[in-house]
Specification:
The chain is of the alpha+beta class. The chain contains 3 helices and 6 strands. It has a 4-stranded antiparallel β-sheet with strand order 4-3-6-5, with helices on one face. The chain has a two-stranded antiparallel sheet with strand order 1-2.
């Protein structure tokens, strides 16, 4: 069987140019997607706050219900928060009861429900003044 020496090869410069083009396209897409919900809007603030609370409550990649209360400090100053983590059969909440005017955001996360035991969950963060 004879080996093909010229088929399927790309010059290094052409490959680098293709990688650059893909990275540039992804960067532009991410910039447009981020600008779709302005940070100053109530829904944008709720979404950013939900991301910050989830990051603060994570331990080894999963949201730890025991860290939920401490994660409320990750919210913006001058705003009040309520965070609720819900799995199929359990629920944890932290923060005061939100008023009807509160803006909320929901994230799909993984919840640590026990040692070496995680379940899919929803983190709902409500934000108000």
């Amino acid at each position: 069987m004879r080996r093909s020496s010229g088929r399927g090869q790309v010059e290094p410069i052409a490959a680098l140019a293709a990688v650059f083009a893909v990275c540039l396209g992804l960067s532009l897409y991410a910039g447009v997607a981020t600008d779709a919900v302005p940070a100053g809007s109530p829904s944008g603030t709720a979404r950013q706050t939900a991301d910050a609370v989830a990051d603060a409550a994570r331990s080894a990649g999963a949201v730890d219900p025991g860290r939920l209360s401490g994660a409320l400090a990750a919210g913006p100053s001058g705003r009040r928060l309520n965070a609720t983590l819900r799995t199929a059969d359990r629920r944890w909440a932290a923060g005061p009861t939100p008023p009807a005017r509160a803006t909320d955001a929901r994230l799909r996360v993984t919840a640590r429900v026990g040692p070496a035991d995680v379940d899919p969950a929803t983190l709902r963060v409500e934000v108000w003044r």
